[in-house]
Specification:
With about 130 residues, the chain is an alpha+beta fold. It is about 15% helix and about 40% strand. It has one domain (about 1-125): Archaeosine Trna-guanine Transglycosylase, Chain: A, domain 4. It is globular, with a radius of gyration of 14 Å.
Length: about 130
Amino acid sequence: MKVITIKQPFASLIAKGYKEYEFRTWRTNYRGYILIHSGKNIDKEAIKRFKYLNLEYPLGCIIAKAKITDCIEVDNKFAKELLKKDSKVYKSMEKLEDSNRYAFKLEELEELDKIYINGKLGLWNYDL
């Protein structure tokens, strides 16, 4: 199964259903199920921003499964829609400077028991 490594707290926000899109500078044609791997890096500023949610932020493990249903090129209109939807979760849309930004639409979220494994760049494979 395909896997994507995501920095915390964003991996946990996806796993808990707060974040519907994952952003990358590259497009993907892949549509289907994907495992969400929480990387070993933390965005400390973002952790503070989401303290009120009382989430756990496990590192270096697969924590959820989702389905990529679309890959959308982010323009200013889409960025504004996301900021209206949730300005804390989509704060990175405030500084939309590069036009090569893509949003992977994630649906059918399912939390999984943690599977500790090292992450990789891009989409990578893991036999579940």
